[in-house]
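Posted in: Protein Modeling Q&A

I'm a second-year student putting together a small comparison for a lab meeting, and my supervisor asked me to include a predicted structure for Aspartate carbamoyltransferase catalytic subunit. I've never done this before, so apologies if this is the wrong subforum. The sequence is pasted below exactly as I got it from our records. If anyone can share the structure token output, I'd also love a short note on what stands out.
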Amino acid sequence: IDPARYFATYGLTSERLKSCHPDVRIMHPGPIHPGMELASDLINGPRSLIRQQVRNGVPIRMAVYEELRS
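Accepted answer (user: helix_wrangler)
Welcome! Here is the predicted structure, written out as tokens:
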């Protein structure tokens, strides 16, 4: 697959995001491939929850691990 062609067809860009409701937020489970799935400017943009997802991931995994150990 040609990455540029894939991004042109399926990637989320600022222009495409403009057509979404203003309350729409961007989430991504990671790892992110900038320029393949999301435009780089969207990753840290005001509508992105990706950093929050990363911050929440460690305590969530710790809680699940602790629950499984008990």
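A couple of things worth pointing out for your meeting: The chain has a mean pLDDT of 94. The chain has four helices and no strands.
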